[in-house]
UniProtKB/TrEMBL annotation:
This is Spore coat protein. Keywords: Capsid protein, Virion. InterPro entries: Spore_YabP, Spore_YabP/YqfC, YabP_sf. Residues 1-23 are annotated as: Disordered. The keyword DNA-binding does not apply. GO terms for biological process: sporulation resulting in formation of a cellular spore.
Amino acid sequence: MDQQYDFGRPMGHERRSKEHDVTMRNRKTLDITGVKQVESFDNEEFLLETEMGFLSIRGRNLHMKNLNVEEGLVSIEGKIFDMVYLEQGQGEKSKGFFGKLFK
């Protein structure tokens, strides 16, 4: 018996790797791996939970081109202004940012 069962996962589903990559092309397209979930998004900002923490992406005319939750893949198109990883231990800065996000 060569196959190893991963307890807690449905049969036939492989374990998602802990890798996280971000690939940007011409400030217009982002391909992101290692996404755990999409917290919120609109045409100016995306907030993603990744294997490496929360990632905020801001820009103009942003839209989700592709979403594959099973594999943790997200593709975003639009004019990208900035990307920031948010640390949970930042205290006031983190609270202020999330307060602004969820007004």
